Amino acid sequence: MTKIDKAVVLAAGRGTRMRELTNELPKPMIEVRGKPVLQHIVEGLREACVRGFLIIVGYHADAVQNFFGDGSRYNIEIQYATQVVQDGTGRVVDLARNFAADSPFVLSYGDILVSPENYKPLLNLSDDVEAIITVKRGQDVTKGGAVFLNEQMELIDLREKSKPGQATSPWYNAGIYTFRPSIFDFTAKLKPSPRGEYELTDAIRELSQSGKKVKALELTGEWADVRDPEILARLNC
After folding, report:
1. Which domain holds residue 208?
2. Domain count of the fold of the chain
């Protein structure tokens, strides 16, 4: 069993669906229940004993860096890397290569809120498992990734934004992962998706289909993809 104490959080995007709410802030800095989504994530991971963070910034990077600084007031260490070109989640993960070095790490999208108890199971990686993907039931897979699993909760396939009528799954990609550094071998080989972006999910699929074991972890309690004003209003009511 490998213990993990590093986390990478993706906080570079504007979040155009938030409209004027992100005129001056990146989407992860929008407040839910009195503090930025990104603060909920950082504090939840810290309580699970993560001590080293890499936050990937881009749009209005100063809003993130001025708020969190070097992490010392949270008793953690925060480094930053900048995504210059917004060309997808696959390429942005490459920015974590030096930070990760030879160590496994947790990766979270910066707009995913979960009950904090979900982080701890992601920090214990069995020796025979190469990666963990989190999943939820009952979500609309046309808005994200449909995750196909076998009876052992191991990944078979992963499809982004399935069209109505396509083969589907009850499992939805919940946007938090644990990776060994082998993920970089697969992100390096990515080709643009039909959307013209380098998709992290394509790299995860290739990893699982290379013979490596990718396990799914079903999240418990609250989960929210803070993707639009309607969800934000519901969380803050």
Report:
1. 2-236
2. 1
Residue with tokens 């998709």: 199
CATH label of the domain that carries residue 200: 3.90.550.10
Residues 6+ apart with CB under 8 A from 4: 50, 103, 104, 105, 106, 122, 123, 124, 125, 178
Nearest to 112, CA basis, from 87, 135, 94: 135
| Residue predicted with more confidence, 77 or 92 | 77
Q: What is the 3-state secondary structure (H, E, C) of the chain?
A: CEECCEEEEEECCCCHHHHHHHCCCCHHHCEECCEEHHHHHHHHHHHCCCCEEEEEECCCHHHHHHHHCCCHHHCCEEEEEECCCCCCHHHHHHHHHHHHCCCCEEEEECCEEECHHHHHHHCEECCCCCEEEEEEECCCHHHCEEEEECCCCEEEEEEECCCCCCCCCCEEEEEEEEECCCHHHHHCCCCCCCCCCCCHHHHHHHHHHCCCCEEEEECCCCEEECCCHHHHHHHHC
Structure tokens at 15: 């979040």
Overall pTM surpassing 0.85 (yes/no): yes
pLDDT digits (tens, 9 = 90+) for 158-215: 988 767 667 678 999 999 999 999 999 999 999 988 888 899 999 999 999 999 999 9
The per-residue pLDDT of the chain, averaged, comes to 92
